[in-house]
Amino acid sequence: xxxxxxxxxxxxxxxxxxxxxxxxxxxxxxxxxxxxxxxxxxxxxxxxxxxxxxxxxxxxxxxxxxxxxxxxxxxxxxxxxxxxxxxxxxxxxxxxxxxxxxxxxxxxxxxxxxxxxxxxxxxxxxxxxxxxxxxxxxxxxxxxxxxxxxxxxxxxxxxxxxxxxxxxxxxxxxxxxxxxxxxxxxxxxxxxxxxxxxxxxxxxxxxxxxxxxxxxxxxxxxxxxxxxxxxxxxxxxxxxxxxxxxxxxxxxxxxxxxxxxxxxxxxxxxxxxxxxxxxxxxxxxxxxxxxxxxxxxxxxxxxxxxxxxxxxxxxxxxxxxxxxxxxxxxxxxxxxxxxxxxxxxxxxxxxxxxxxxxxxxxxxxxxxxxxxxxxxxxxxxxxxxxxxxxxxxxxxxxxxxxxxxxxxxxxxxxxxxxxxxxxxxxxxxxxxxxxxxxxxxxxxxxxxxxxxxxxxxxxxxxxxxxxxxxxxxxxxxxxxxxxxxxxxxxxxxxxxxxxxxxxxxxxxxxxxxxxxxxxxxxxxxxxxxxxxxxxxxxxxxxxxxxxxxxxxxxxxxxxxxxxxxxxxxxxxxxxxxxxxxxxxxxxxxxxxxxxxxxxxxxxxxxxxxxxxxxxxxxxxxxxxxxxxxxxxxxxxxxxxxxxxxxxxxxxxxxxxxxxxxxxxxxxxxxxxxxxxxxxxxxxxxxxxxxxxxxxxxxxxxxxxxxxxxxxxxxxxxxxxxxxxxxxxxxxxxxxxxxxxxxxxxxxxxxxxxxxxxxxxxxxxxxxxxxxxxxxxxxxxxxxxxxxxxxxxxxxxxxxxxxxxxxxxxxxxxxxxxxxxxxxxxxxxxxxxxxxxxxxxxxxxxxxxxxxxxxxxxxxxxxxxxxxxxxxxxxxxxxxxxxxxxxxxxxxxxxxxxxxxxxxxxxxxxxxxxxxxxxxxxxxxxxxxxxxxxxxxxxxxxxxxxxxxxxxxxxxxxxxxxxxxxxxxxxxxxxxxxxxxxxxxxxxxxxxxxxxxxxxxxxxxxxxxxxxxxxxxxxxxxxxxxxxxxxxxxxxxxxxxxxxxxxxxxxxxx
Length: 1053
Description:
Elements: H1 3-31, H2 43-79, H3 86-157, H4 166-175, E1 183-190, E2 192-193, H5 197-204, E3 209-210, H6 211-216, E4 237-238, E5 241-244, E6 254-255, H7 260-272, E7 276-277, E8 281-282, E9 289-298, H8 308-313, E10 315-324, H9 325-334, E11 342-348, E12 356-359, E13 369-374, E14 383-389, H10 397-474, H11 480-511, E15 519-522, H12 523-541, E16 544-549, E17 556-559, H13 561-578, E18 583-590, E19 638-647, H14 669-675, H15 681-691, E20 696-701, E21 705-716, H16 720-728, E22 743-747, H17 751-763, E23 767-771, H18 774-783, E24 790-794, H19 795-807, E25 815-820, H20 825-832, E26 839-842, H21 847-858, H22 872-876, E27 884-888, H23 892-903, E28 908-912, H24 915-921, E29 930-934, H25 942-962, E30 980-984, H26 989-998, E31 1002-1005, H27 1010-1018, H28 1029-1041, E32 1045-1047, E33 1050-1052
Parallel strand pairs: 3-6, 16-18, 22-23, 22-24, 24-25, 25-26, 27-28, 27-29, 29-30, 30-31
Antiparallel strand pairs: 1-5, 1-10, 2-4, 7-9, 8-9, 9-10, 11-12, 11-14, 13-14, 15-17, 17-21, 18-19, 19-21, 20-21, 32-33
């Protein structure tokens, strides 16, 4: 691994920590911005300044964090993709772990030593405190003993006779014992020379006794017998005790110089003139360890610089204070709250090799010991206090927790570090694999698209010949059986084309390449077209097929009309397929005016048969709240439609309702055998509804029927002036002015059906009065003040009350129209018996069909001229009369089909078999008015041919503009642009886009029909003014027999 790789990785890791820091600081930026100075007392100013500061800080940190995001891109650009070796980074992780283990051990040792130092400081403080208190109290007692020595010198030796005796001394010492809390007793021994011994003993009345004999044989005070003790041996001088406190009165008459410890103590005291301590020894009688403090009592005041000899000669006696060390220290420790915390030992360390224990025990502790020196005023003797903790030190929890946490954090960091490296390595490998898979997927997608295009082209090309020739065969003289065979073949071919279109749409949806158009279209015209598509089948079955669009829905919308028509076609096709009686009812409303369809009665339906509750079909829509109102906000220019398709068919079984929108799934095998179909129509419809920002649902009950409901979002296609006019007048403007102001009477006892009929007639501008029976209609016409222009009677009412109507018919009655679902023999027989039979209007009702029928029945509007009279075929031949059209296709069958279809409309057709020949024919100037160009051709395809044609036209237009080209055609064409229409079997989106890109003006998909070719090419010609009703009827018949509709560049199933 190179240095560049290491630096690149460091940049990645640094960017990670940088982002974490920015994320952490963002909490403080949002919540803890300081108040600006000078804003106190002004809430508004404070709030404003705080917002400004927050904004500045947020902007600052956002800028920093944003710049941090550029680090990976910079590192990737500079160092490329880094591939990490597992062995190298494993060594790095191991080194990291080892270093942090050592660091955690050092941390443990450091914190432990800190705790130990703290423990030592605590022990030293406590020990020094006890030593200081002991030393202070001892000094106080020592001062009092020294003061008593002065008292004895003054009142005993300086007074003759002495003012102090044993009783006085005893009472005084007892009363002043509180001033000497550390002494257990005080005694005074006078200095007696050997020459004075006899007089002294005779004066006192007792014999001077030996101290050492009493020390060797401890006796109780009550057992004292003065005669039992040995007299003090002969020596130069004696120091018998003459005064003693009651607590030590057993030492009276004892010679202090006869005891080993006391003798040394007395001699040092009179020689130094200071208080002198004895070594620790068992006290007489109590046998407790103690010391004696001795002061010499002199005859007179001595100067501070007196010699030892002078001091010895001036000595009168010796005053000693007895100290019980154990009791002394015990009382001292009881005064402290932390008595039980430490162990205290007091030692006499005059002989350092053999220290004497004065207090305490040798109980083992934690080994930690502190020594505090003690100064009791005797420079010859050395004392010290040794302190130890009574209990062992506690576990170093803080040290262990800290070191453990450091170790855990280090291990976690190492794990994160290693996991990050492993993840980066894995992600890089996955990315590499994904790149390979992406390339394979793209290649597979391209192959799939090419396969679909090829299959579509290869299937549609021969199908175009089959259907085209069948269509041309239908225009020849055939008997009834032959016509039936031809229609059957046509239906089978169209079913195959429909299946191909559905499979292509499903492939587009799965690949995510299905896109919607945004064009302005007439919603009501779309519904009329769909009704025309299914009018033949509904009339064959005798079904009531109707559409109702709310007045609140705008006339024009902006969206994809082809896909909207495809959804309706799929839903209505299923309804037609599975409904044998009753009705199929399509309603369109705005979501804001959702109709309340619950509790729908039988009499309130279109056919009188029961229907399902349509409200259940949209109750699961997420975009609608529980009360049915819109819950998602739309843009001001957007509207949301809710479309319902209601039928009274067989319904959907409950067990099959969960898979109704699954592709290629049928309700059951029997259904597929009976009704056919691929099972992908509803799946495609659901996907299209999703693209339109809507939802789809259904409600179905077996043997009752089904209702499918979907929503779709469109833009309002009405201009502002049109919207104002629409708001001013809820009724839409009539589309045929010749019917405006007319009045009609509609006889229908079903309110739902009457409302649909009223809707379609009012679209023409006709005012309709609805009555339930013929009698009321006749009475209304007699009493009506205005003229009634027509009477509209439903077939169901006519069958019941035809005789009554004929009997009571007025002489000058208005024109009678009969509304029927189909033409049957009973209606024909009834109408043949009437002198002036009513005109039949076959449902479903559409605006164009109604207008044509009413124009013929009332004798108004565009009437046929003598030139127009004749068979429909003769009329169609005038539509493209005088138009010269070039057809380019390498397939001879397609040439014959297209030429035959256009010649049917009177066009002058020229055929070309290649793109090269088409370019030569269309080199300006030429006489052609339009061109149908195949796309896939050998030698030169349609795209390249169109580009060359456009280049030639552009060159000619430049020459005309500069005046270089002045021909006889100048008066006819000032600019060259021949309409070129693509004619291909490819229906994929890429082909559409390529057609527009190369300069084509339209698109016709194979297999095509004569009406399709005419509609596409007629968009570029001025329509002749003499088109009559015969042409409309012919086209209407063609529409009813068609199974597909072509609009723009879409093929809708």
